[in-house]
Specification:
The protein is of the alpha/beta class. The protein has a domain at 490-737: P-loop containing nucleotide triphosphate hydrolases (Rossmann fold). It is built from 26 helices and 12 strands. An 8-stranded mixed β-sheet has the order 5-12-11-6-10-7-9-8, with helices on both faces. Strands 2-3-1-4 form a 4-stranded antiparallel β-sheet. Mean pLDDT is 77; it is low at 1-20, 71-76, 125-129, 511-515 and 733-748.
């Protein structure tokens, strides 16, 4: 029995709260296991009946190998090739197998558009066109539109047949499934039908028609290519002849023999002239610079002209200058030995003077030759320039003719190549048209299936069973989530945020409906729970003992009257205690004590009809005093609010140490709120697994609004065995330690 003191249930850890929610969901499922099982069985039965009503469907399967490369007998594959290889090619063939055109070929091959299985449903649908055919909507159409519609021609038999083939092909196509096996060249073709033989026939015909359609497409492409190549070949031949004629006429007109040699010779001549021109230009520039330098000196002396580098570099002048230097040196040597008139001296001076005159004469000649050299270099440069321009013009003319010749030659070569290519391709196409090679072959033809593939009754029944199980579990969890009642002691702290005084186990009543008080077996867990609650109430008022205690609940029949008696009996073991029946609406205190419902009580004494000792009865062996409600007054609320009632409580307080008032429920009437104003504290009774936490919280809020101290909450009729079994609260199992004989049998 978990009957802890008020503060014990206020210690909650966040992690445990999450675990508790998951555990409570699992417990909700376990608590409703039999309804869940029943719902699962019912769903399985319904699923079985549904599966039994379905028409069996048979599936035929065949495999087809589609080769991605054609037999290369001749190089004609480009004429009829699809242009796809590898993954794209296989994807294309996959879509072709599912195409509407191929389905229509199957329909026409098997004449399914004339089959009653396909024609009859369509005709029936046309006949059962609906209620709209019974109403004339022509008045809603614009004027003239009806006349235009009447002019529309009726479809021809061929058009009607094409429409029927299209409808049947759509039906057939919807049942065909094409699957590529493991990224290979093998394709699986399946078809489902109610007729097993028809299913196999459709698969085999589809494979045959796919191969036949490929051969037809290839043959048609080859024939169209041959016709087109023949037409183009004639045009290319005419173009080639004309191009050759234009080339020959141009060669004769320009008298061309070897254009490549002429072009090479002209290029060499231009290169030589360009080199000679550049050299002449350099000479002209050099001569021009020397001439300009001499012109700057004007009419200068021989010594000044000798400063010009070009004059200095002249071979004869260089020799004369050397001779002049030698003669001058000789004169200088003889001058140191002889006098001026010495014959050797005179001869040396004469030689020096002669050399100087020769030098002056040669310098004059060099100066005069500089202008001559410049004029000659200028004329040479101009001559080479003119020759170079003429050579370039001749070379451009040769290039022009060579370009025109090459253009005509290219035209001839291109037309000849095209003609040869088309001629070869036409021969290949003609030969390829005589060779038929399919790109696919049937590996496994479809066999007539021996058993249906649908419906899978086992899976349907299992799905129904599983669905019922899931639905039942979901409803159970939802019911557990929506169930906001107080079930276990922890809910008092978690859901109500209130202190728990204790829990009282579910007890039985005797055959007369009298409550079996706890003192009849004081070793029972119920007696221990009552004593624990008594201790909790006493400890909550150590500083100021609670003389007047009001006991109430949210709703009727939560056991507050029985708790009032038993708690009063527990207090009576220590002090004079009186239990007052203040529930003047539906009094039950007298009945539980074995008294007549008209026994004098509170209402009689407050009204002044009876004396106090006539209204109080000693009950039980513990010395507990009880004042029942008495006769039900006309206005109970007015009686409880009167001064006479207050005076009665004060008078009772003089005779008793503890007064316990059994009040009416908080949500039923306002009597409990009035009584709370007289009380030192209030005890709130909550029926386990019956009262909503929202209702209890609202009742506690109404009590607290009167500024009355609430000692705590008592969780009544708590079934520890059920809590341990269904709510996962295994810690309550030790309640049996106090008394194994107290097994709950009914609610009190």
């Amino acid at each position: 029995m978990n009957t802890s003191l008020p503060a014990l249930w206020q210690e909650q850890e966040g992690n445990n709260a999450v675990q508790l929610d998951i555990r409570q969901m699992l417990m909700s499922v376990y608590r409703h296991k039999w309804p869940i099982l029943a719902l699962s069985v019912l769903a399985a039965i319904i699923a079985f009946l549904y599966a039994s009503s379905l028409v069996p469907i048979y599936q035929a399967k065949g495999t087809l190998l589609i080769e991605s490369e054609d037999a290369n007998i001749v190089s004609i594959q480009d004429v009829y090739s699809t242009g796809y290889r590898g993954y794209e090619y296989r994807l294309t063939q996959h879509e072709l197998l599912k195409s509407r055109n191929l389905a229509e070929r199957v329909v026409r091959k098997l004449e399914l558009h004339k089959d009653p299985r396909f024609v009859a449903p369509q005709q029936k649908a046309e006949k059962d066109s609906g209620w709209r055919d019974w109403i004339d909507f022509s008045f809603l159409k614009p004027a003239g539109q009806e006349a235009k519609q009447q002019k529309v021609a009726e479809p021809t038999p061929e058009e009607l047949e094409a429409q029927q083939v299209g409808r049947v092909a759509a039906t057939i196509s919807s049942g065909i499934t094409v699957t590529q096996l493991n990224d290979s060249q093998i394709f699986s073709i399946t078809y489902r039908s109610h007729d097993p033989e028809f299913a196999a026939k459709v698969v085999n015909t589809l494979a045959d028609q796919y191969i036949e359609s490929y051969l037809d497409a290839r043959l048609g492409a080859t024939q169209r290519a041959s016709e087109w190549l023949t037409d183009r070949l004639a045009g290319l031949k005419e173009s080639l002849i004309q191009a050759e004629q234009r080339l020959q006429a141009f060669t004769e007109q320009e008298k061309l023999v070897d254009m490549e040699g002429i072009s090479t010779l002209g290029a060499q001549q231009i290169a030589d002239l360009t080199k000679a021109y550049n050299e002449a230009r350099e000479k002209r520039i050099t001569a021009q610079n020397i001439r300009q330098e001499v012109e700057r000196l004007g009419r200068a002396s021989t010594a000044q002209y000798l400063t010009v580098p070009a004059v200095q570099r002249h071979e004869l002048i260089s020799s004369l200058r050397q001779m002049q230097a030698d003669a001058q040196r000789k004169v200088n040597e003889l001058g140191r030995r002889y006098g001026v008139k010495h014959p050797r001296m005179i001869a040396a001076n004469s030689e020096l003077t002669s050399i100087q005159d020769d030098l002056s004469l040669e310098v004059s000649k060099v100066i005069a030759g500089i202008d001559t050299e410049y004029q000659l270099a200028l004329r040479t440069e101009q001559t080479l320039s003119d020759q170079l321009e003429v050579a370039k013009a001749d070379y451009r003319e040769v290039n022009r003719k060579d370009f025109a010749l090459k253009e005509l030659q290219r035209e001839v070569d291109t037309n000849r190549q095209l003609y040869d290519l088309f001629f070869t391709r036409m021969k290949e196409t003609t030969q390829a048209g005589q060779f038929e090679k399919a790109n696919a072959r049937v590996i496994d033809a479809a066999q007539v299936p021996t058993g249906p593939v649908s419906p899978n009754k086992r899976m349907i029944v299992l799905a129904g069973l599983f669905g019922g199980l899931v639905l039942g579990m979901a409803v159970a969890v939802l019911q557990g989530v929506l169930d906001n009642t107080i079930k276990v002691p922890e809910d008092v702290a978690v859901k109500l945020n209130a202190s728990l005084l204790g829990t009282l186990p579910l007890q039985k009543e005797d055959k007369d409906g009298h409550f079996v008080s706890y003192w009849e077996n004081q070793q029972s867990n119920y007696a221990e729970a009552v004593r624990t609650i008594r201790t909790a109430v006493v400890l909550s008022g150590l500083d100021k003992p609670h003389k007047i205690i009001v006991i109430t609940s949210s709703l009727p029949a939560e056991g507050k009257s029985a708790i009032s008696l038993n708690l009063g009996a527990a207090f009576a073991q220590m002090e004079r205690t009186l239990v007052v029946g203040a529930d003047l609406r539906r009094p039950t205190l007298a009945a539980k004590c074995g008294l007549h419902h008209k026994h004098p009580g509170l209402s009689n004494y407050v009204a002044g009809d009876m004396k106090l000792d006539e209204c109080i009865t000693q009950f039980g062996e513990q010395g507990l005093f009880v004042m029942p409600a008495g006769l039900i007054p006309t206005n109970p609320l007015e009686l409880l609010s009167s001064k006479k009632f207050r005076a009665t409580l004060e008078e009772l307080g003089e005779h008793f140490d503890r007064i316990i008032i059994d009040s009416a429920p908080v949500h039923a009437v306002s009597d409990a709120l009035i009584l709370a104003t007289y009380a030192d504290t209030l005890v709130y009774v909550v029926g386990a697994d019956s009262t909503s936490a929202t209702i209890v919280k609202r009742g506690l809020q109404r009590i607290k609004a009167t500024n009355t101290s609430v000692a705590g909450v008592i969780l009544n009729r708590f079934n520890a065995e059920k809590a341990s079994k269904y709510y996962g609260a295994g810690e309550y199992a030790y309640q049996s330690y106090y008394g194994a004989d107290d097994e709950p049998q009914s609610r009190s």
